[in-house]
Amino acid sequence: MSEMTSTKLDPDAHLVLEQPLLRLPHELLRKNLKSAQRQIESTNKGITSSLASDPKKPADALASLDATLAKAQNLKRKLEALHSEEKQLHRQQKARIDHLQSLHEVQSLADVKYDSWAHHRLDRLLVDYLLRQGYTASARQLASEKHVEDLTDVPVFEECGRIEQSLRTGRVQEALSWCGENKQALKKTDSKLELELRLQQFIEMVREGDMGKLMEAIAHARKHLAGGTGQDVEFGLRAGGLLAHPPDTLIEPYYSMYAKDRYSHLAQSFLKTHHDLLSLPSQPLLHIALSAGLSALKTPTCHSVHAVQPSTLTGAPVCPICSTELNELARGVPYAHHTKSCMEDDSVVLPNGRVFGRERLRILNEKLGVRKGRVRDPTEGMSGDEWNWEDAVVRRVYIS
Amino acid sequence: MDGLLACHNTLEKKANLSKAVTDVQKLVEQLQSARDAVADNPDMAVLHMAKLKNPVKQSFDRIEEDLKEVNKGLNQYQKALKDKFKSSTLPTAGVGESGLLSRQAGLVDRAIGMHLLREGMFGVADTFVKEVQQSGTRGSVNCGEEMEGVELSSQQWLKDFTTEQQMTEDKYDEEEEEEEEDDEDLYTDDEDLYTGLEKPRLQERFADMYHILDALRNRHNLLPAIDWARDHSQQLESRGSNLEFELARLKFIELYTSSSSSSHSPHNDPFAGPLQALEYARTVFPTFTSRYRYETSSLLGSLAFAPALASSPYKPLFHNPSAWSDAAAAFTREYCGLLGLSEQSPLYAAVTAGGIALPVLEKVERVMAQTKGQWTSVNELPVETPLPPGYLFHSIFVCPVSKEQATDANPPVMLPCGHVIARESLEGHSKGKQRVKCPYCPQECLVRDARRVYI
Questions:
Q1: In chain A, N or C: fewer CB atoms in 10 Å?
Q2: Whole-prediction pTM value?
Q3: Which residues belong to any copy of the CTLH domain (chain A) (predicted)?
């Protein structure tokens, strides 16, 4: 029995799911720094060039200096905003480090402190799951009731969900401006998202079909779709081909280009790009933890037709897998692997074949109010058969 | 963790944008004074402008330096992060894009809904149910076709969550605007839910439970719990539960000791409490005597020691500091038990068990990926995932011959000598013969004498 159960806690191994928790604030801090860099660069360019120009009249010089000053002040305001954003992220980062650190101070899985840490983690994972499913209001409420705001990312997902939803309803503008904000990073990962969005705009223009729109579409394609090299040329070619096919065409790939479900495809592509960029896992972590847990807890007994109904209590706590909440969900997962039997000490078998620990059977029968010397199967309560203990019907089983 | 913390402190103290902000402020001041100078003395404008070029360039260089420091801090932090989390990929635990749990989102949602209720977060549960309902209608509009059947059945559980109050509101709505068909669909079988006690509305049930628990824990008021136990007396008894008696005993003790603690009673009669307790015992205990003869007589025996209880043998019974929390725990267990639910949130238990099992599974996945191996058994995890003792809920039978766990298809059988092996092992061992020797003792027996046992 001792090999099968362990209360040892190895914090580092235990944190295998927690990388994204620390990753996200870090990626956001990087993004923040990039914005600062961009602001400074553009202001630098602006100011240097206006200082370089030689004003002919003193009034011009004054105007030019005023403009420069305004630019510098504007930069300062922007940087201050970014700095306060940065402070916020630092606070989050610290809270997350502290949360993980507190696990390092727990010695054993049996410690009550572990229990409270694990509760905290569950709340976090739930908020994450709710956000990913788009249940934003629930997520927000849960995060605030459980005080895990700093450990969860409501605003990030809210923004992400807003853009995803706009794509699903056929608008690309929000997603395009997101691409604009993350241009450099997207270029680094060689993302096709922006091209796909531009292509969608093109498709919509062609769909309308009148001459003016078609001209506009061609101009749009020249501007956004023709510049690429390598694989990107594909986009220009597909756009060109589309011009020759009306919206009711059945010819591929143009049929699917006109299809309305291209938007949900775009939404998914956006989600993937967004999550990759911020090092967010593509699956909710709750799924991973839950799936592992269902398996680790599941035994062949949990879905056996002979399983004892959870409502007929035998003194043992109801197994989480047998409980209504998870029973159906756990049906498809593999059960835990065991190499040794794990039975109650001194097991005996009743005439109906059910096996119990002798002591527990005695106590349960006492609770049931069964007369001394007689015995019942406690899972059947007072409705089943009753036997004599001594009639040698209750006998020992040997299980090695 | 220390490395990360150190890097974080650097970021917070030094490597942040505060320096850049200060330097931009200096730049602003530079420009401001140059501007003022030009305004005072327009003739020197060109000169001032020229003089400004270098300092401005230096300022921007300085600001860029400031950012470089931030960047350096971030890089260090990233490195510490890498040191902390050696592997950059997360374990999958068999969860993929088309993983089981993603396909059963409805069931996951239900588990979460029930978890919220049993944790007593009724507000969040309420919001959650509403959002799931909304997304359900939204989802079936968008991606109707194939998913529809699944979606509908996976949202069935929502019915259990709506409270009576919501329902009456909805009914009111329906009267007003009768074209709202979704609502009707959701509540068509209201009637059976109302009448059938077997189909409890979970939300109400848990609200009820929290009401009783609150009385028990926080106000030390036993009455709601006792009433509930009396109403469910038969079910409790058939489960072999002592709850009803435990509560009655606690009530007896409460009455017994009440006079000594209530200072406001006009004449401080030391026997008032015991007398009340005696009266209570007379009305209530008779129903318990068949099962609890010893306990009831022991309680009544304590009356003889009334003034000097603290020095009597009954002291542990009367001075039990955890009596109330024990009662609350017992009550929770029975209440959930009657609903067929475990006392602790299964979602919590499963996620926590998952957290404990994941390091092992992660290691297996890594090794499997390296050797391009495959799990040999689809139904069973490839490795043992040890859990703390509290996470074992069933007896486990592993056949000592085949080392396989017994299942319904391959159940455990007991030979007449009392040794238990799996049926397939017995069949393999007997090789079609009638008689077989037990693999673990010298006794021989007939194969047909082996009996199926239920473990």
A1: N
A2: 0.81
A3: 156-213
